[in-house]
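REQUEST ID: PR-0412
SUBMITTED BY: lab tech R.K.
PRIORITY: routine
TASK: structure prediction, single protein chain
INPUT:
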Amino acid sequence: MKKLFTLSVGLSSILLAQNITSIKYNGLLHLSEDVANEVSNIHVGDPFDIMKIDESIKKFYEQGYFSDIVVSVTPDGGLVYTFKEKAVISKLQMKGYSSDDEQEELFISIGLRKGDLYDARKIEKAKKKLIKKIEAEGYYDTIVEVEVVPKEDSVALIFNVNKGEKIYIDKIDFAGAKKLDKDEIEDALANREEDFMGWFPGLNDGVAHLDQLPYDGMRAKDVYMQHGYLDADVSDPLMRVDEGSYKADISYKIKEGEQYRVSNISIVGDTEQLDLEEIKDNLQVRKGKIFNIAKARKDKAYIKEQIANKGYAYARVEERFQKNKKDHTIALQYIVRKGKKVYINDVIISGNHTTKDRVIRRDVYLAPGDLFSMTELKESKNALARRGYFEKVDIEQERVDDQHINLLVKVKETPTGSIQAGGGYGSYQGAMVSASVSDRNVLGSGINAAVSFDVSKISVNYSLSFTNPRIWDSDYSFGLNLYQSEFQYVTYDQKSVGAGVNIGKQLTHNLFGSLNYQYSKNEATEVDNSDNVLATEDYYSIFSPEDSNYVKSMFSMGLSYDSTDDFYVPREGIILGGTLGYAGIGGDQKFIEASGRFGAYYGLEDIMDYDLILRYKVRARALKNRGEIAIPEKLYMGGIGSVRGYEPYSISPFILDSKGKRKVIGGTKSLVNSVEASIPLSKAAKMRLTFFYDYGMIGEKSFNDITKEGYGVSLEWLSPMGPINLVFGRARNPEELDRTSNFEFTMGRKF
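STATUS: complete
OUTPUT:
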C-alpha cells in the first residue's frame, strides 16, 4: 500500500484552522464522485484534519480498485485526490497444463476471471490453489511461475506450469491387519497400488494423491468401523519416496481390537409426531447384527429427513454410542431435537434468462406459506432437472428466522432450440438432406414444437408436432402431431400419412397418465430386389392383397413413472411405463398392442470417486390379432433402441422356402434387454463413452423364437445442436444370413 500526502504553500494558513474549500477526484473509473464522498466522509467546509484524510485513504484502498492514491492541497485550501486504478486482466493463459477448451473453467476454479482487477495477493493465492490441484493429481515438485505482460490499459497473465514428476505407489503395507482383507482396506483409500489394467478408465493407475494422504488413515479406520471394530486404531500413513524412480511405499500400523454387535436401538427426544416403529423398520442397522458405521450415518440422515418432512427444517439428530467392552456390544441412541416448524416464506428464482418464472415455479412443489418438506424439496430439484431446460439446477435454503425459510432456486439454462439445414450421411439411410426448426421450450413457455423434413436414399419424411406439457399451468397436457413418410424397409416399401392427438395428466410428482389416438393411411408394397438398396436375394416378405392398402385407427392409454434426476444424463432413479392400445375402431387393422419399458440408473461417483454410471433397460411389446395384421405393423428388431450391431428392422421371424430363402413374416412378441456402463470422456465437451451389451428376443408364437446379442461402445455427445449418439456395435455370433451393422448414429434423447 502506497500513500502520499502533499501540502502546498498554503500550509501555514490551513494550520490556522482554515476549512476545506473544495474536494476534487481525479482518475476515478469504478466509483462515482458521490460514492467517493461517502467513502472519504470528508465534505467541503470541514476543518482540515490530517488524521481524517489519512483514514479516508485507507478506506479507498479497502475498495480494492486502486494501486496508488495521492492527496494534495491547493493554495486556496482545496483537497485533490489523484487515483491510479489497478490494471484489468484482459487475458489469461496457461502453458504446460490443461487444454485450451478447459482453461476458462480451470481459472474460475482457482479464483480468476478475465475482467478482474490485477491484485498481486490474489494472483499468489490462485497460484497456490493451482499447485495444490496439480499435486492432487499425483505430480511431485510442481512449479508455477506467473508472467505479467503489461498492455495499454490492462495486463495479460501467463501461468507457466512445470508439473514435475508423478509419484506411483509401489507397495502398501498394513502392519497388524489380520481380520480384514488388505484389498478391502485399500479399496477405501485415495492412494492405492496400481490395479491390473490400471490404465483403463475407472480402475486405479497407482498415481499418488498427495493432498489426500493425510486422510487415508481415517479412511482405513472407517473400514474397520464398518465391520464393527470400534476399538481399531490406524496410524497416519508413512510414505517413503524414491526420488530416482519416483516410486513410493506407504505403511500403516493397525491395532484391530474386537468386533461389536448391536445390542439395542432407540430413538428419543421430540418424537411425538413420528411413527417410531415404521422408522425403525426402515433403518439399515439391525439389533443383533454387526455394527456398521456407514449404515448408522445413513440411518441418522433418514431420521432427520422424516422429521424435516413434518416441517422441522432446522431439526437436529444426535447419535450416542454406548460400548460395552465386556461383551463387545454397542447400544445406539438417536436423540431428536425438532425445534420449531418452518414455513416457506418465498421462492426466489434466478439464472433463467429465457424460461419464464411460472414455468419453473410449477415444478417447485413448495410454495410460500407451505410447511417445509425435505422430500418435496428433493423431488422439486429432480423435476426441474428432468425437463431438459437446464444444464444445472440447485435449490438452496436461506434462513429468514426460526420459523421461516426462503427457497433459492438457481438454474443455468441450456439451449433447447435448434435451426438446422444441410446434408449428411447416415449409416442406414445413406446420403441425406434435412432441415428442421425445433424447440423444447418455445419462448421459455415450456411448449415443445418442431417442424422437420428429411430426404435420403431410402426415405422421405415430413412432420409437424406440438406439445404443451402443462395447459394453463395445470396438471393436464395436450399434444398434436402430423406426418407423412415414405420408407424403404429390408423387404418392402411403406408410405404413410397420419395424425395423432394425445391428452395427459400429471397424476403424482412422478406418475403421468395419457390417452392417445392415432390415425394413418398406409400403402405397403413388396420391393423389387433388383432395385432396392437394402434387399438381397436371400430376403423377401409375404404380402396378401389386404397388405397393400390399409387404414389404422388406434386408441391407447398409457402410464409412465419417472424418478430420474436428469433429462440427458440420469445418475439415479428409474423409468417405468406401459401402454395398452386397440386398433380396429374405424380402420382395417384389428389388433391389441401392449408395451412396457423399464430403466434403472445408478451412479457410482459417491462410492468410487469416479463418474461411472450403470444402466439397465428392458423393452417389451406384444400384439394380439383380432384379424390379419399387416406385415408393416408387426414387430422387428435391430438398430439403435433395439439390438445394436444389427441393421434396423432386420431381425424378424421368417420361414424358409424350397430354395432356402427367408420369407420375412414379422413378429408379434419382442423383448430387448440392455446393460450399459457409461464413463466421462470430456467434461468440457460434455462427451461420455458407453459400453453396452444387448440381448433381444422376438417371435410369432413365443418371445424366444429368435434370440440375438450385440455389444459395443457408443459416444454420447451433448452437442450445441442437441444430443448426438454415435454407436459402434458388433453382432455376437451372427448367422450367415443376418444383416449386421458396425456403425449408426441418432440425434435426440434415447431411452
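NOTES: The domain at 3-85 is CATH 3.10.20.310 (Ubiquitin-like (UB roll)).
REVIEWED BY: pending
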